[in-house]
Amino acid sequence: xxxxxxxASAPRVADGDKTPVILQVLPALDxxxxxxxxxxxxxxxxxxxxxxxxxxxxxxxxxxxxxxGAAHIELPVHTKNLLAMRRNVSRLVKVIxxxxxxxxxxxxxxxxxxxxxxxxxxxxxxxTTFHGTYTTNLPGKKIYNAVMTRGARVIAISEFIRDHxxxxxxxxxxxxxxxxxxxDLGRFSPSAVSQxxxxxxxxxxxxxxxxxxxxxxxRVTRWKGQLxxxxxxxxxxxxxxxxxxxxxxxxxxxxxxxxESTVRLLGLDSVVHVVGGCDYMPAAxxxxxxxxxxxxxxEAFGRVVAEGQAMGRPVVAPAHGAAPEIVxxxxxxxLFEPGNPxxxxxxxxxxxxxxxxxxxxxxxxxxxxxxRHFAKERMTEETLALYREVMAEAAAESGNPIAA
Length: 404
Known about the structure:
Number of domains: 2
Distance between the termini: 25 Å
Order of helices and strands: EEHEHEHEHEHEHEHEHEHEHEHEHEHHH
Number of helices: 15
Helix content: 40-55%
Shape: elongated
CATH topology of the largest domain: Rossmann fold
Radius of gyration: 23 Å
């Protein structure tokens, strides 16, 4: 059940035995990659026979946490108010002590300050995950960010993020571990998508039969590169294809209007369509002939790049951030010069010109690449192994073994 910290009737999650107890803390359980990773780890902790708790300010994905077998405790850990952050320390101390928490895994900076203090008071171990490159351009920002390097282990979600951590902060390299984010291959698999779902979506988006489809999934926000792709398409000067910009604008209606205005100005009305969000992305991937990530800023991981390959689609992505770790050039996709619409267009033409045999070979290579390196099961196994390592260290220091 989801409980408030003031609810005295909330059931104890641990009852004094030595079963490991893992507490994950994040600001809220809205839709996103951080939240998805939290739910996946919560489920894996429960399936391992451990006790799994998540603390957040709530959100629609609380239901998924509860379905995973974990408990959810609602606390205002999303806040950046200094007084509220201080109050969160005592709230977290209460949770840690009541449930005999072994590890607190925190995924965001504001709650990490409260978690670090609570762990010092209780002796629980802290693990952190860097989900991005935090800005350091304002006074005090680097100090604020550095709390994420204080974990007994610091998880980097890509080699790119690991290198950023080591080059920016004073942290022992031995404490930094790369654990790539994981794709749910039960969901993102060609065999999991019915033809009926694909046909329904094609009708909804009014796609003509036989026309090549370029798909750019992602939030409609400037750095995701929707305008870059539009410029690339203008340079290709083709009207025999469709480009779908799929994703929620999250209230950025002004930017949507800018995209649509640019599309009209470039004469691409019949080619580019801003279709909004999609509640079943596997079907959207199946509709596509090529999947594009066009982010102008480096992606910490880039879930779209991995999901597209998992669905057997060739991927075109920028040669920065984590994309070069996920794409095997000329085997599972192509990398283009970041921010260069001409190079993006050139690689799109290569992808669209693939013959059927070449496309089949690339699909198999792409699926195998994701299964080998970016499956959800690999992420959860590596995370639980890291938890065991941290608990073993803590047990050696205290002389109290933990059943793991």
